[in-house]
Amino acid sequence: AKEPVRVLVTGAADFNGVVESGSGEARRSGQIGYALVPMIARGVMLGPDQPVILHMLDIPPAAEALNGVKMELVDAAFPLLKGVVATTDVVEACTGVGVAVMVGGFPRKEGMERKDVMSKNVSIYKAQASALEKHAAANCKVLVVANPANTNALILKEFAPSIPEKNVTCLTRLDHNRALGQISERLNVQVSDVKNVIIWGNHSSTQYPDVNHATVKTSSGEKPVRELVADDAWLNGEFITTVQQRGAAIIKARKLSSALSAASSACDHIRDWVLGTPVGTWVSMGVYSDGSYGVPAGLIYSFPVTCKNGEWTIVQGNGLGIDEFSRKKLDSTAEELSEEKALAYSCLT
Ligand code: NAX
């Protein structure tokens, strides 16, 4: 039998947090974490033959709620779950973990300046980076979900210099999956028959969902999405904005942000990274830019990647020509990330 892998989930308590500013109303927190931990315990993230030990971290006001989640995990009697650590101590949380999913962060509250939110997240990610660097397992894979996801991941990478830069990533798979979902609805085909969309750039409304290389499996072979949809105005307009604004649409409908879809996508991200992407298929991941596609090096930027033997590689090649429309979009989301990076650095002093 395989040795268990320790998986850290930060922000894992599901509780009615009290908003510190504004109306003072109770607010439901930690929904992604609560959706995510049972998926991990069922083998959705690391496979049905991989035992896991869950490490859950949250802040002291959430300690009791976190313990409640631990009780439920015990009660669910998951065969793959070999232990649960529920803690508010960052060192205990990070010790020995082979996978770290960083969902905890400081949400933007009404009336708060961007810089104030950034500053809170920079200090959280700086501290957690150091703890991971010192106490996580060698070769720990890190996925940052909490917003601003790309920039939180960049801070984590900068403050954990001994963790290889290839091991620090952020989640744009939810956006990728949303794009697959929109195409499948539009064409009335199975979502599993649609592949190779790309999310470029920031996990924000400047992201660029690109279908130029996407295909659909049909009874007469793989066909380009552009040919099947045959409506460039929709693909270059409403499709893009729908994917970019989907998070806001979910909040409007649920009065809560995306949780089950975010958790499921986080599992997809780690599973494909660890176990590999199918031949001929790529996925989108926020990774450390090496300058590919003219994206400035030194940003965490979402690219099309393939994964093999636990490593991702940015899809290269002449096949992925970037037209003028796409070029502008790749550049403007890179510009936003450069600004976020500068803002984050200004919070460090
Ligand atoms: P919540 O704000 O409800 O939950 C965050 C949790 O983190 C809370 O339980 C809180 O107590 C905890 N926390 C705060 N500071 C912490 C610290 N220093 N250490 C450990 N835990 C801490 O957010 P939720 O709706 O669960 O979303 C989590 C994060 O994911 C948010 O930042 C959100 O913006 C982001 N999202 C990112 C997505 C992506 O695709 N990358 C999509 C979904 C989501 O919007």
Automatic annotation (TrEMBL):
Transmembrane segments: none annotated. SUPFAM superfamilies: LDH C-terminal domain-like, NAD(P)-binding Rossmann-fold domains. Pfam families: Ldh_1_C, Ldh_1_N. NAD(+) binds at D58, N121, V145, A146, N147. Substrate binds at R108, R114, N147, R178. Residues 172-342 form the Lactate/malate dehydrogenase C-terminal domain. PROSITE patterns: MDH. It catalyses: (S)-malate + NAD(+) = oxaloacetate + NADH + H(+). Residues 29-168 form the Lactate/malate dehydrogenase N-terminal domain. Its EC number is 1.1.1.37. Keywords: NAD, Oxidoreductase, Tricarboxylic acid cycle. One of its GO terms (molecular function) is L-malate dehydrogenase (NAD+) activity. The active site is at H203. One of its GO terms (biological process) is tricarboxylic acid cycle. Belongs to the LDH/MDH superfamily. MDH type 2 family. NCBIfam families: MalateDH-SF1, MDH_euk_cyt, PRK05442.1. This is Malate dehydrogenase. It comes from Stephania japonica.
